[in-house]
Design a protein that fits this description.
This protein has 490 residues and is α/β, with parallel strands linked by helices. It contains 15 helices and 20 strands. The radius of gyration is 24 Å and the shape is globular. Bound molecules: 2-aminohexanedioic acid (UN1).
Length: 490
């Protein structure tokens, strides 16, 4: 097999790619001997320099006509579409997703950029009637300023795209710190924006540790806003510092998403969606299906249908196009997930592992757990791996109670053929995203994305709602206008 040379990554500082002392080697989680990228580390001087540069570029970018900002995003979108196969391959090698998922996610990032490019020709305010004659009231959406964007490894191009694109479209400048595990994909996204003509300083890409970024960009007040997707612990810590600085904060944290299967569900359709939702990307999505809550009368046939489908997954080298289940992000993650599953087994859960996976690397056999209590930690805490727990409940009321009985509230799904059953779930599910007869994962670029309870900080990403985070609203009362009307001259 031919060996692909590692890519030497550089930070983007003030429009120039700059190297630095090697900090780490990014490795293929399926083949830890394969180095995918060599990553430099930013020191405190580089980090604070990036913040100064982004601040300096702000006035010019904010006054650039929005459609001209959109042109850059349109061009970057086209470049990502052209490069989807090669970036998708690198993404798969670096993150462990399958090749199809890597290419699909790159195309998705392209679609996200295209959507936000289009938003630059939409209205940026509204006109209101005043109760006073001769007064007109308007609103105007203006950029917030310098936005710090901190992104996770599990969607290494889609999530950066869905934060960076609206930030830039609405006239902000960006300090971007990608996940340490997926620097190469982040680099490719930034490269496409630079190749598309993004002016120097408008986007600063820095490879650095999370704590250094927090102290340099957040605790110092160098940024005006921070958007973060990642773990709950880091999110809470970041938010407490950012709120203390009166920054605008957006958090997308974990999920413990459930599929409810009603007695009248099409079990084949449900099992398809459960397996896709729990096993795609090896279960490493905050929207993944972690729990299945089945009305007892269908639990046994549903379990059989799920086991049969997981049995047809093909584990292996994620860049082999026939492989449908890749490794986890790193060997430590697979050891952690395995430990959680074995602890659940120790407490009485029955585990089925229908396929074997390659040894070595970060592969982990997919697991279906049956006989798990809804209050057990395996059914309460985010696991982030190819694991799904199944529990039986007597009826729909109990199913909805169990569905809502977790700290998270990102997405949830119900399988039923009955409109009233579906609507009860739609109304009472305490999640930000509800699916009816569909998998819990997935998000379209033009619709709001976000959770309730512990999953989000209430603001929504993507779609038009992104403008609520990435802009601030100014209300303008214009007084002393002539008190005239359209029909005065008739
Ligand atoms: C999806 O379900 O396709 O980190 C997107 C995550 C989520 C994004 C999920 N913020 O997994």
């Amino acid at each position: 097999m031919s060996v692909i040379a590692p890519v030497e990554l550089r930070h983007l500082r003030g429009g120039t790619w700059v190297g630095g002392p090697l900090e780490r080697e990014g490795r293929n989680p399926g083949r830890p001997d394969e180095i995918v990228a060599r990553v430099p580390a930013a020191d405190a001087v580089l980090l604070s320099g990036a913040a100064v540069t982004a601040r300096g570029a702000l006035a010019g970018w904010a006054r650039t006509p929005a459609p001209a900002r959109g042109e850059v995003l349109f061009r970057a979108s086209a470049l990502l579409a052209d490069r989807a196969e090669s970036i998708g391959m690198e993404l798969a090698r670096e993150e462990g997703k399958t090749l199809a998922e890597g290419i699909g996610e790159t195309r998705r990032a392209s679609a996200i950029l295209r959507y936000f490019a289009g938003q630059t020709t939409e209205a940026i305010g509204a006109v209101y009637p005043s109760s006073a004659p001769g007064t007109r009231i308007q609103t105007l959406r203006q950029p917030i300023g310098v936005v710090a964007i901190v992104t996770p490894w599990n969607f290494p191009i889609a999530i950066p795209a869905w934060k960076i694109a609206p930030a830039l479209a609405y006239g902000n400048t960006v300090l971007f710190k990608p996940a340490s595990a997926t620097p190469l994909t982040a680099y490719r996204l930034v490269e496409a924006l630079v190749d598309a003509g993004l002016p120097a300083g408008v986007l600063e890409l820095v490879f650095a540790g999370g704590a250094d970024v927090t102290s340099s960009w957040i605790a110092s007040g160098a940024a005006d806003a921070v958007s973060f997707t990642g773990s709950e612990a880091v999110g809470r810590e970041l938010a407490s510092i950012a709120y203390g600085r009166h920054m605008r904060v957006q958090l997308e944290l974990g999920g413990k998403n459930a599929v409810v299967v009603a007695a009248d569900a099409d079990l084949e359709v449900a099992a398809d969606a459960i397996v896709r939702g729990s096993m795609a990307s090896a279960g490493q999505k905050c929207t993944a299906t972690a729990r299945v809550i089945a009305v007892e009368s269908v639990r046994v046939p549903l379990l059989a249908a799920i086991v049969a489908r997981v049995g047809r997954l093909k584990a292996g080298d994620q860049v082999d196009p026939s492989v449908t289940l890749g490794p986890l992000i790193d060997p430590a993650a697979s050891a952690r997930v395995d430990g959680l599953v074995r602890a659940a087994e120790g407490l009485g859960a029955r585990a089925t592992r229908p396929i074997v996976v390659p040894s070595g690397g970060a592969h982990l056999a997919p697991v279906i757990l049956d006989g798990v209590g809804g209050d057990s930690s395996i059914m309460q805490d985010e696991v982030f791996g190819p694991v799904v727990g199944l529990m039986g409940v007597p009826d729909l009321d109990a199913a909805i109670r169990a569905h809502n009985g977790v700290a998270y509230g990102l997405s949830g799904s119900i399988f039923t053929r009955d409109l009233a059953t579906a609507d009860r779930f739609i109304q009472s599910a305490r999640v930000g995203i509800v699916h009816v007869n569909g998998e819990t994962a997935g998000a379209e670029p033009h619709v709001p994305f976000g959770g309730m309870k512990g999953s989000s900080s209430w603001s929504r990403e993507q779609g038009k709602s992104a403008s609520e985070f990435y802009t601030q609203t100014k209300t303008i009362y214009v007084d002393g206008l002539p008190s005239v009307g359209l029909f005065d001259s008739e």
